[in-house]
Amino acid sequence: MSYTEKHDSTSKEEWMKTLANKEISRTTINKLIMNYLVIEGFKEAAEKFEMESGVKPSVDLNSLNNRIQIRDAIMNGRIQEATALLNQLHPELLDNDRNLYFHLQQLHLIELIRNNRVEEALAFAQSHLSEAGEDDTSILNELERTVALLAFEDPLNSPFGDLLQPAHRQKVVKVASKVNAAILKMEHQIQISPKLSTLLKLILWSQDQLDKKITKYPKMTDLESATIESPK
Amino acid sequence: MSEGVTSEIMQIGMQPFMTFVNVESSRAYIDDLYSPDSDKCLESLICIKNSVIGSNRQKESVIAQGIVPRLMQILKDRNLKTNLRLEAAVIIGSLAKGMADHVELLLNCGTIPLLLEILEENEKLLIDVCLCCLRTLALHDKGSLSTTYTLQQLQKLLSFVNPSENIPRQACVATILSCACKGPVEQKALCAAGAPQVLAVMLCMQHIAVRIPTLTCLAAMCYENKEVAAEVANTVYHDVMIPNLLVSLLSRDKPIEMQLEASKCLTNIYRAGALSAFDTIIANRTLPCLVRLCQAEHALPYRIAAAENLGYLTEVDSELQQTAAISNQLIGSLTDLLNSSDTAARRAAFRNNSVDICRAFASLGANDEDIRKRIIETNRLMGRVVEGLGDEDEGIRLAAVRCLHSLSRSVQQLRTTFQDHSVWRPLMSLLTVFATGSPPPELLSAASSALCNLLLEFSPAKEPMLQQGAVQLLATLTTRPEASLRLNGVWALMNLAFQSEQRVKSQILTALGTDQIFRLLADSDTGVLMKTLGLLRNLVSPRAHTDTMMALHGSQVMQAVVLVLEGPHSPDVKEQALCILANIADGERAKDYIMANEDVLKKLTDYMTHPSTRLQTAAIFCIGNLVRRGEAGALERQQRLRDMGVLTILHQLVSTPDSLLFDKVKAAMTQFTDL
Fold first, then answer.
1. What number of H helices and E strands is found in chain B?
2. Domain boundaries, chain B
3. Quick check: B628 and B671 in contact, CB under 8 A?
């Protein structure tokens, strides 16, 4: 094919063929998975995966204990316990990252509301959360939404009920992951996010670049199922 | 509360997780802080710690309850269990991350010396926490009361950065030491403690968390310190000198922050005189790196910092300015930085930043007409600068004025771009506002310097500025307590008076007033005095104006001249005064002011035999003007001066070896008509 020849796009079939011919070794994939498990602090899964695949984790899995303990506490709504553990492990972390501190406190507030400890929630919001909104409008917004829950007899069915819904788990996971990354950063780990997520970001970025150039190409439309659609 | 708490750090029970909600409920915990029972005390400490970390309000609350002295006491007491002291140190460290007054309180009650003392102990964890706390406090430890580290303390700190130590320790120490570099004394002390060698080792560590503060520290050590910079530049590690180590950190594959800090270091070493401007490290590596960092693809804060540093790098060397100006779109990317302030969202972040960019421009434009031209031709720059003059932020106004001052050195620009943008207008309004308020002298000084250039005789802005009351404004400036401002005021007036119309001259004299002129003539600053005399001289010349000006203000001018001639001034100053007399003597009726003044005539004859030939020359030039043939009353004047012995003195001076003086003597003698 000469360079002057203009070809509009690669067909999906061609692309899938190219992909199929591209060999990625199992070891590489396994290493990627192990990297994900270690960074995200899934110790048990990492141990099992080590047994199954034979891939050695890059760090001593016992060093994951602190991070796991903190993540579990957050995931189970024991925010104050998580905060105390975090302060024990890295006393400067939450003073340096007030945004993260706010998100942890917000989770705690939601827990209090969920458990109907209204007075405690109100006092807590006043003493620990209100200052965070003072100079950050985005925080103020979130804070107002959360505190608004207190105004309703039945917070779950209020306009802000989404904060108490299972969808809220997403946020909890996000905060837990942020805390995890912050700890890794504090411990001067060069890598603070799994290589897998970097790869996914790379796909999105590349497709974005292609879209901007109005190129037709087989596009991955769903990351979760890796669905690739034909050029339109 | 028994959910699988396994870790040893959890053994203290769940109570400490309860952060206290208000002062009343915290009372109990605070009370336990003073308990002799160490378990209770520890529980209290942990509770306080978890409450204050992350929250300024809680910090405020516990400080208000007076716990700081108790914390210090616990931290100091070597008889207590280490974990108690550790928690106390953590709390102090957290309080140090609070508001300015919290930090000040800690600094004032001697926290830093205490922490330094603890470093001498052998408790690893405690030392780690104390170093973190020291780092936080050191960043705020400024002003006259700031800590001075002894040689021993510096050496102790440096001992914590052995390659075998942990990364946080090394990072902490580098930051603490860079904060310690407050002036030449501290820089030298660090040098004496062996810092250059240690820092060279740290530069070679792979970890960015260590390298960056190390670079900051080196830059702080070398800043404006020739000796230390030379020492650093000659320090070798693994056969490589520090400047070469630094160069390797400038390459594109290094993190931006590292490139930036490394170039700062090299800039400071160069500016301190330890590297030459021609050194390839500076001209071919540091400069291009900074130019590259100014470009649009980088994050704003880095671009700003790079632009500022570039300004400092090129400030005094016109070769570097030229290289920078022709480099890869630099002027474009700097202007782009200024333009980015368009977005209102970025405005706040950008505010302080314009300053540095304008400074970079000011620096680039300092010495070279071509560069000034290129800068000005850059899209919309002048518009931005003019906008900057009216900005509400003081820093931006200052930067814009500085930039304008630098660009106003160009005759051509004064006549073109400056005029197109009516630059004088915002500048005048800026200065007018000043007249009523109390702006910082630095701003006034830069603004009035630019004004001086705009009032030069050939500047088209001169006339409109006069109409806007420039004279009054400058007259006010001459009354400022700062010598530099008085100087600029008089200087600008002098420029204004040069070859100007009669009405302008009268305006100047009226605006200044006789009293102010005498005050300026008695000014402690010789520059001000000289320019005031220059102003008077411009006022009474050229010949066409002399008589009118003298008719109106003759007695005051004469008084002023006498005042200077009698004062304890240098020949330079007296020469100016004599030149004024010569100008007066050039007039027709104005001559009478001299002839009628016995005292002045006596002085003139005295100066004819003064040891300084310059003063002799000026006095004789004046005499020559007085006795000029063919003018009304010339004969009487000649007779008068002859009677005073002037001609005799002239005859004696014919033998002078000074050719200039000889010419004047000859010229004066030929005016005398033989009787």
1. 42, 2
2. 20-143
3. yes
Confidence of residue B96 (pLDDT cuts 50, 70, 90): very high
Measured between CA atoms, the residue of chain A closest to residue B97 is A95
Count Cβ atoms below 10 Å from residue A169 Cβ, excluding itself.
Answer: 10
Q: What is the 3-state secondary structure (H, E, C) of B235-254?
A: CEECCEEHHHHHHHCCCCCC
CA-based nearest residue in chain A for residue B23: A127
* pLDDT at residue B133 in the model: 96
Region B422-429: mean pLDDT is 77
- A188, B58: Cβ pair inside 8 Å? no
pLDDT value, residue B415: 65
Whether A63 has its CB under 8 Å from any CB of chain B: the answer is: no
pLDDT of residue B70: 95
Torsion angles phi and psi, residue A222, rounded to 5: -135, 110
Picking from A95, A97, A139, A189 by the largest number of B CB atoms within 10 A of its own CB, the best residue to mutate is A95
The reply to whether A93 falls in a domain is yes
B19 touches chain A (CB under 8 A): yes
Strand partners, A222: A227
Is B54's CB within 8 Å of A131's CB? no
The total number of structural domains that make up chain A: 1
Q: Which of B70-84, B213-227, B407-421 has the lowest mean pLDDT?
A: B407-421
Contact B54 A94 (CB under 8 A): yes
Looking at residue B108, its amino acid is: N
User: Is A18 part of a structural domain of the chain?
Assistant: no
Residues of B with Cβ-Cβ distance to A81 under 8 angstroms: 14, 17
Domain span at residue A179 reads: 59-187
Interface subset of B 229-288, CB within 8 angstroms of A: none
Q: pLDDT-derived band of residue A92, with 50, 70 and 90 as boundaries? A: very high
Q: How many CB atoms lie within 10 A of CB A211?
A: 11
CB contact under 8 A, A131 and B55: yes
- Dist CA B207 CA B171 (whole Å): 10
Q: Is B438 left (phi over 0), alpha (psi -120 to 50) or beta?
A: beta
Using the Cβ of A81 and the Cβ atoms of chain B, whether some distance falls under 8 Å is answered with yes
> Could you give the angle at which helices B483-497 and B526-539 cross, rounded to 10 degrees?
20
- Residue by residue, DSSP assigns B46-110 as HHHHHHHTT-HHHHHHHHHTT-HHHHHHHHH-TTS-HHHHHHHHHHHHHHTTS-HHHHHHHHHTT
Say how far apart CA B204 and CA B245 lie, in whole Å: 8
Give the least confident one: A82-96, B221-235, B586-600.
Answer: B586-600
Higher pLDDT, B246 or B552: B246
CB of A49 closer than 8 Å to CB of A55: yes
Report the pLDDT averaged over residues B288-295. Answer: 86
Shortest Cα distance, chain A CAs vs residue B92, angstroms = 11
Type of residue numbered B181: C
CA B34 to chain centre: 51
Look at residue A161 and tell me if it is in a domain. Answer: yes
Q: How far apart are CA B119 and CA B584, in angstroms?
A: 78
Q: What is the pTM of this model?
A: 0.65
Helix (H) or strand (E) run with residue A221 in it:
strand A219-222
- As a CATH number, domain B20-143 is 1.25.10.10
Q: B69: pLDDT confidence band, cut at 50, 70 and 90?
A: very high
Rg (CA), chain B: 35
Cβ distance B446 to B482 under 8 Å?
no
B4 pLDDT tier (thresholds 50, 70, 90) = very low
Rounded CA separation A169/A164 (Å): 9
Determine whether the interchain pair B3/A76 forms a contact, defined as Cβ–Cβ distance below 8 Å. Answer: yes
ipTM of the prediction: 0.77
Strand B236-237, strand A219-222: pairing: unpaired
